[in-house]
């Protein structure tokens, strides 16, 4: 299997989720930014990451016979499906040495991109003498229940088993199986995840302390639920990122929305806009254009990573006036710059919904209700998150209602500092403060071993992406170093406890 060439999707998604399912003519926002380490949709091609080629012979793919429903004892609960996981044995110090296991917990995408994309595992394998295990999330990639993707995604009856509790139970079973298989019962497991996968990693440590010794939860917005984080946290940070990059760029974007409305209200206004933005199909509403632009700005901010720094690139275009000095020409120049060159057309290009988009839309419409809205204090037009509207749309589409309070009921989140300071241990919450999702992240140290490690200029999941000696800024090198040392501390303590017991 060639992982380098199968790199198609991206670790660490959680991107602005285009709710194309739902009537696009409705004015209401229906985007919940998806959380991926590298970035989905348009972001993939722009990731700017040159992935090191990994020698495929060191990776072996396995399929585990997984239970459909871990929590009930109904006859259908016992159905099984094949769940994919991949192991790299090359660096492992072996069971006799109780050498560690680094386990990447898959998120809302096929696993293929993660092998090369999650550099934290490969970059630290030698240092930890670690066995590397990558596990795919159910309902993505090759880990599909009910025999086929079509059947699995058919309706709420089959989608109902698609949730985080089932997913982390899957991970527990597979990790226990792997330890047993290689007689590695004493090997400490460190789980690693980014974005939604980072949430899973932290939840996993809290729910399965007997399976994982610790968790590295990168860019995990575990507090972006219920009312814990202000709804406008995400777009406030997008705005801040642009304003810090360039005040004039920020002003131009801020003024552009009413300019779009103004042009649209004129005779043939939509066709004027369609020409101006070289749209792939004629615009039917201004929200097609506005959502597209919002997505570009949000993606640029979320994945604002070195050495390219897309926010700076977009602002370079907007401030540069390559296509004219009026507001909309400047905005188009920003789009052009974002793509780094000519495309045949922009906006509303015909696309097939990606597997990730389809899966994540179910997840946000059932369990992962992340209330992102836009208030009037950003560079965007206000577009608040209205829970009742969101619920109605999800119910109309899937026939079941979202449960917006379940995540905090099941995993907690309110008063996290008070609750976790004397419960739980060994979790690193890492963030880059320029990542809009950091607004829902854990940014304060909670106890000696539940710690927040963040960087002022970092973006989404940057710390777990492959290291690059020639282009990584010092602050990123330092962040990774701190994380590795913390994990080494956990493992050293574990070995001394183990020794004392034996
Ligand atoms: C590291 O960064 C440099 C400079 O941006 C780039 O040319 C090189 O391809 C990168 N290497 C890898 C392995 O990504
Ligand atoms: C591990 O320990 C067992 C039992 O002591 C021994 O039989 C085996 O050869 C050892 N394996 C390795 C790889 O050292
Ligand atoms: C889902 O589809 C199956 C088979 O087509 C059907 O039996 C079941 O009632 C459907 N469930 C819902 C919730 O519509
Ligand atoms: C982009 O392509 C158009 C024609 O498709 C051409 O007129 C224009 O000069 C190109 N711009 C750049 C910067 O290459
Ligand atoms: C969408 O999928 C169909 C069928 O697989 C394919 O023919 C078409 O080219 C795809 N369109 C795009 C835009 O990828
Ligand atoms: C923003 O919204 C708040 C609350 O709805 C309102 O009190 C305030 O006047 C608004 N500010 C502006 C500048 O519109
Ligand atoms: C939390 O503690 C770690 C380890 O001591 C330290 O590196 C980090 O800077 C602290 N984080 C904050 C936000 O103070
Ligand atoms: C963050 O980046 C800005 C420039 O964009 C720079 O002025 C600042 O020193 C950086 N901060 C840190 C902590 O690296």
UniProtKB/TrEMBL annotation:
Keywords: Glycoprotein, Hydrolase, Protease, Signal. It comes from the Eukaryota. Gene3D superfamilies: alpha/beta hydrolase, Serine carboxypeptidase S28, SKS domain. One of its GO terms (molecular function) is serine-type exopeptidase activity. GO terms for biological process: proteolysis. Residues 1-27 form the signal peptide. The keyword Protease applies. Transmembrane segments: none annotated. The keyword Cell wall biogenesis/degradation does not apply. PANTHER family: LYSOSOMAL PRO-X CARBOXYPEPTIDASE-LIKE ISOFORM X1 (PTHR11010:SF96), PROTEASE S28 PRO-X CARBOXYPEPTIDASE-RELATED (PTHR11010). Belongs to the peptidase S28 family. This is Serine carboxypeptidase S28 family protein. It comes from Acer yangbiense.
């Amino acid at each position: 299997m060639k992982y380098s060439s199968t790199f198609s999707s991206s670790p660490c998604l959680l991107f602005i989720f285009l709710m194309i399912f739902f009537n696009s003519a409705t004015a209401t926002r229906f985007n919940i930014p998806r959380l991926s380490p590298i970035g989905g949709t348009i972001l993939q091609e722009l990731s700017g990451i040159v992935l090191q080629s990994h020698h495929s012979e060191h990776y072996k793919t396995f399929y585990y016979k997984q239970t459909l429903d871990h929590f009930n004892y109904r006859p259908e609960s016992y159905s099984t499906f094949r769940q994919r996981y991949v192991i790299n044995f090359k660096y492992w110090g072996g069971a006799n040495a109780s050498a560690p296991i680094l386990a990447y917990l898959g998120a809302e995408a096929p696993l293929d991109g993660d092998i090369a994309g999650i550099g934290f595992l490969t970059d630290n394998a030698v240092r930890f003498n670690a066995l590397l295990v990558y596990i795919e999330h159910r309902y993505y990639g090759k880990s599909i229940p009910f025999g086929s993707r079509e059947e699995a995604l058919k309706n709420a009856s089959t989608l109902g088993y698609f949730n985080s509790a089932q997913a982390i139970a899957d991970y527990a079973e597979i990790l226990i199986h792997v330890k047993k298989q290689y007689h590695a019962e004493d090997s400490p497991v460190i789980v690693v995840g980014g974005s939604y996968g980072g949430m899973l990693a932290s939840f996993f440590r809290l729910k399965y302390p007997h399976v994982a010794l610790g968790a590295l939860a990168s860019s995990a917005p575990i507090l972006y639920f219920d009312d814990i984080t202000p709804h406008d946290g995400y777009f406030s940070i997008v705005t801040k990122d642009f304003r810090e990059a360039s005040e004039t760029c920020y002003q131009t974007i801020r003024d552009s929305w009413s300019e779009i409305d103004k042009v649209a209200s004129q005779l043939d206004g939509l066709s004027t806009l369609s020409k101006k933005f070289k749209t792939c199909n004629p615009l039917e509403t201004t929200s097609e254009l506005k959502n597209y632009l919002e997505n570009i700005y949000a993606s640029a901010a979320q994945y604002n990573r070195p050495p390219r720094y897309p926010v700076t690139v977009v602002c370079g275009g907007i401030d540069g006036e390559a296509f004219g000095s009026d507001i909309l020409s400047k905005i188009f120049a920003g789009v052009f710059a974002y793509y780094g060159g000519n495309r045949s057309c922009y906006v509303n290009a015909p696309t097939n919904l990606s597997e990730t988009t389809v899966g994540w839309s179910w997840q946000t419409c059932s369990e992962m209700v992340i209330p992102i809205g836009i208030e009037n204090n950003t560079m965007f037009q206000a577009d608040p998150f209205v829970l009742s509207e969101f619920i109605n749309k999800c119910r109309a589409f899937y026939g079941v209602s979202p449960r917006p309070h379940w995540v905090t009921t099941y995993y907690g989140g309110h008063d996290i500092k008070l609750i976790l300071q004397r419960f739980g241990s060994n979790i690193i919450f890492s963030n880059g403060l320029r990542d809009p999702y950091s607004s829902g992240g854990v940014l304060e140290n909670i106890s000696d071993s539940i710690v927040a490690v963040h960087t002022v200029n970092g973006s989404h999941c940057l710390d777990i992406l492959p290291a690059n000696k020639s282009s990584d800024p010092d602050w990123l090198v330092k962040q990774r170093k701190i994380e590795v040392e913390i994990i080494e501390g956990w493992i050293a303590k574990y070995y001394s406890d183990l020794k004392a017991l034996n």
